[in-house]
């Protein structure tokens, strides 16, 4: 592994505290490539030399027993996705690069590795994957943006406010694979992506 990568503290917040209302069942527990979606995400981030930190809700807190990484519980996930991001952020004491990923947006480790390499090589503030001009996920943030991240709220559209504040500070990394746009919010979307 590149020494520049190994000398940084790379964290991925995996957001998994939502109620999965559109899916109808807990997304984190769905089977994906022979394991739960949550375990797949944890495994792929670890393979990319990134330390995953999972944020669960009270309704699926029992899943923390099934993963090989640190888990946090957002006591009030109904307050929105930003509440899970802030739960994670407030628990971190030292990091160089922070990836924010949703459990229902699985990507292979190679995508995470390339994003991280591009982010560090270009000393980017924000790095985002794209597919034919569309921005996907996950987003990577430099530690310099911590004050901006701590100031997010549902009222100001969470991370969108940071991303849209200055589009020129986003390092866009093109991928031929549309997987960087995948969002498994519904049973139909889940089945469509799983069958690819």
Structure overview:
The protein is of the alpha/beta class and 196 residues long. The protein contains seven helices and ten strands. It has helices at residues 3-6, 37-47, 81-89, 109-121, 146-150, 159-165, 187-194; strands spanning 10-16, 31-32, 35-36, 51-56, 70-73, 97-102, 126-131, 134-135, 139-142, 170-174. Strands 1, 4, 5, 6, 7, 8, 9 and 10 form an eight-stranded mixed beta sheet that branches. Strand 2 and strand 3 form a beta hairpin. It starts with a helix and ends with a helix.
What oligomeric state is this?
single chain
Instruction: Name the structural class.
Output: alpha/beta
Poorly predicted regions: 1-7
**Biggest sheet layout:** 8 strands, mixed
Q: Which percent band covers the strand fraction? A: 15-25%
**SSE series:** HEEEHEEHEHEEEHHEH
Euclidean distance between termini CA atoms: 30 Å
Number of helices: 7
Q: What's the average pLDDT?
A: 93
Radius of gyration, taken over Cα atoms and rounded to an integer in Å: 16 Å
Binned, the helix content reads 25-40%
Fold blueprint:
Layout: H1 3-6, E1 10-16, E2 31-32, E3 35-36, H2 37-47, E4 51-56, E5 70-73, H3 81-89, E6 97-102, H4 109-121, E7 126-131, E8 134-135, E9 139-142, H5 146-150, H6 159-165, E10 170-174, H7 187-194
Parallel strand pairs: 1-4, 1-6, 4-5, 7-10
Antiparallel strand pairs: 2-3, 6-9, 7-8, 7-9
């Amino acid at each position: 592994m590149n020494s520049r990568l190994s000398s940084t503290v790379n964290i991925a917040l995996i957001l998994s505290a939502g109620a999965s209302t559109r899916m109808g069942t807990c997304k984190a527990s769905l089977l994906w490539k022979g394991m739960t979606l949550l375990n797949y995400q944890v495994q792929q981030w670890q393979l990319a030399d990134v330390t995953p930190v999972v944020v669960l809700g009270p309704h699926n807190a029992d899943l923390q027993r099934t993963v090989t990484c640190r888990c946090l519980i957002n006591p009030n996930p109904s307050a929105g996705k930003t509440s899970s991001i802030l739960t994670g952020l407030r628990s971190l004491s030292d990091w160089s690069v922070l990836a924010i990923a949703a459990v229902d947006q699985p990507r292979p480790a190679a995508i995470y590795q390339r994003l991280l390499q591009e982010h560090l090589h270009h000393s980017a503030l924000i790095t985002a994957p794209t597919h034919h001009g569309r921005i996907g996920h996950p987003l990577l943030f430099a530690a310099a943006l911590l004050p901006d991240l701590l100031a997010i709220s549902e009222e100001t559209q969470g991370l969108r406010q940071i991303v849209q504040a200055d589009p020129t500070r986003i390092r866009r990394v093109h991928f031929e694979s549309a997987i960087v746009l995948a969002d498994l919010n519904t049973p139909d979307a889940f089945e469509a992506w799983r069958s690819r």
